[in-house]
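User: Predict the full complex structure for these chains.
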Amino acid sequence: MSTRAYAVTRAGRRAAVPASLVVLFLLPLILMPLAAVFLFAFRGGPLAFWNGLKTPEAQFALRFSLLVAFATAAVNTVLGTFTAYVLSRYRFRGQRILGIVVNLPVAIPTVVVGTSLLLLWGPIGLLGRALGPLGLQPMFAPAGVLLAHLFVTFPYMLGAVKPVMDEMEETYEEAAYTIGATTWQTFRYVILPTLKGGLFAGALLTFAHSLGEFGATVMVSGNLRLKTQTAPLYIFAQFEAGNIEAANAVAAVLALLSFFIFFVLLRYTGREGD
Amino acid sequence: MSVTLENVTKHYGGGQVVVDRVSLDVQTGELFVLLGASGSGKSTILRMLAGLTAPDEGVIRFADRDVTLVPPQKRDVGLVFQNYSIFRHMTVGENIEFGLRIRGVPAVEREQRREELLELVGLGGLAARYDSQLSGGQRQRVALARALAYKPAVLLLDEPFGALDVKIRTQLRQNLKEIHKTLGVTTVLVTHDQEEAFELGQRIAVMERGRLLEVNTPEKLYAQPRSLFVATFLGGGTILVGRCQDHKVALGGLSLPIPAEVPHDEGDRVRVLIRPEQVRLTAERPRPGAPVLGQGEVVEQNFSGATRRTRVRLPPLAGVRQVVPPLPFGEENPILDAVVPAHDPPTPPAPWVTLEAWHILRQPTPRLLVCDEGEGIAPALELAKPLVDALDAIATVLGVSPDARRQDALREALTERAAAAGLAQPAIRVRRGDLAEQIALEEREAPYDFVIVGAGDSDPRPALRHTNLYEELLPRIKTPLLLVRGRPRRFERILICTAVGEPGKADIRAGGWLARRLNATVTLLHVTISGRTMPALVHAHLTRGVATLRELEVKGRPSLREAATPLEGILAELRSEPYDLVVTGAPPPLARTPIRSVSITQAIVRRAGCSILVVPAGTW
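Assistant: Here is the predicted structure of the two-chain assembly.
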């Protein structure tokens, strides 16, 4: 009994030093900068904060960002789930390569993604050149922003859903078939509920990444205010113009939104773990 | 509902046959067990019954309804998987109700059925649990209840107790038996566990390598198996091989009558199965006339609770070979397994061994492996038909494709060519890879009595040609290899080449066996090297050889030749008479040196103009 108590206190004492070390280096790296955002946002008092948010540009940027994030999450949920299903359930030639390609966006710098999209869809791009005369111009327009976000966030949905799909034995579906369920019923009542956790986590991750996307967006949007300016672009533009307060107000809102998403995710995955 | 399979065949990618022309009938309300080792095709049959896999050939019927291509949803089967596959996001209750919900059964009725089933499988009160909160045994029960919920016409169970520990397994088997008795649903259970099959099966089908070997009640399968595989797969015991003499099998001094239902010809090998409990070990000499194998010697004794397993070394039995259990290296005498009640007085160290009962296995159907290239002339295939007829044999046609793409085309070509050669429904196997290697692999995986390969023309100048298939095959193969040269339709004159001091007489036996069935005449040749071999030895050797042939009821004519080398003697004999077939021993494996020296067998194969049968030592 006594040795056990000793071990526990020993373990606690031993953890104290390295744990405080971690907190110490996280302080300047993560914790203090986050605090700074809120400190600056409210430095001028709540009224200044409110004024910073009230401008049409800020309003538009926030709304536009949320809209694009929703759209990105919705589209990638469908595409990502389908891709995960194909990669997990079928065996075919070039499967490995396809598996690498779909995860590539994580590794490519987002600015490069923006550039490559411009080179394809832009006014002098490979395909854009042909689209121009038809009156279609995806770049420097909301569609371009959506394209960039779909590209950049594609792997997150896949990463969340494919492990669940891999873990689900094929006999799972076969069991449903022999019980009498049609393909649709099997998907609706057996596969989808099993994937629920992965789908939710993947959609939230996609949403969060889309909300904060900067590198690719700045290239393809043209940073046109009230047209293609997302919240991060707005923050950057206001900083450049010296309007620190306006920038901080939107930054604080973005940070709060991210916290919210993060905690929902944390709670959700925690519950799934049980 | 009764279940019928007619000639069902299934190949997997790679051309491998998983289920090979299986036909069986399961009666309405029967608990039928498919028993076999892993890879025997039993689970594939179950999947085909469930509609999860479609057979390549054949018909599956439920009662009178052809369900061969009916999707699983419309089959009305309940399937319990080995891994259970309980839906994790549903409670136990929801899992059980799933089939009813799909069928639009009202909630009240569903609940009622759910409670009935939970009670039936002994899980009352656990309806609200999730998969993760259940033990393995409970999961298995949920899977069973879920499969039974919608009252399927056929219940299919795939190794349902495979993942459970022994104690729970016994309990669940008992449960399953009771449930089956209560519901009377036609049930097919797949297992690799012989004990399970015995305990549950009203009838058992034993499968091996995709083939259905035997179907019978557990009692009959144990007591009167027809094949060696079934005899050894189900239960222990000893299998001794003796020769048929005057409708009896001789085991040393003991002669056992051969029943009429297992006909054997004079000189045939007869396999006698002796179960451990059929052996009596006594201190006193049994009364005269009792079936006594002699006075043995206890080698090993193991106490296992109710019984004592005893291994006895028998005195040498002339002309008897042991197949099972395999003899340890260097052991000459047969070893017999016996089991006696543990409360019996201790076995004396040198007991008299008496048989209380025994069983004689059916004469095995000879199996021919016919190798064909799928194009050009087909000497092996053309010879196969007369051989199948004369030997009452089964032929398997093997083709080897160098790559995956041409496998299907090759299979088609083989089927066509086999039909053209007159072979009725042979098994077709297509393997992929190197020709010689794949033939050797096929020969190792399945028991064949002869491997038949086309050998092209004889070639006196081997150095000018690339290595022949048969040269690669010779050192690898452990089954008599028949190299077909030219296009022989039948073998009328057979020449068997023997040598003094040769280990065993496998070549004489195999050649003689073939000669009797083909009604051919045999010449037994011995070549003496000028001035070296002692005439008395040669004479004795040839006399023994002729006697062996006589045992097989074949008339053999001895022939002695003097020559500078054995090869020259054999070639001279071949020139003197129009032989159709030369029989020779295989080069002993020890003679294979790193340097490619040409063995006498190789030399004969190269130079002889007729077909050749190469018999490895110890095969016959």
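Chain A touches chain B through 18 residues (CB under 8 Å).
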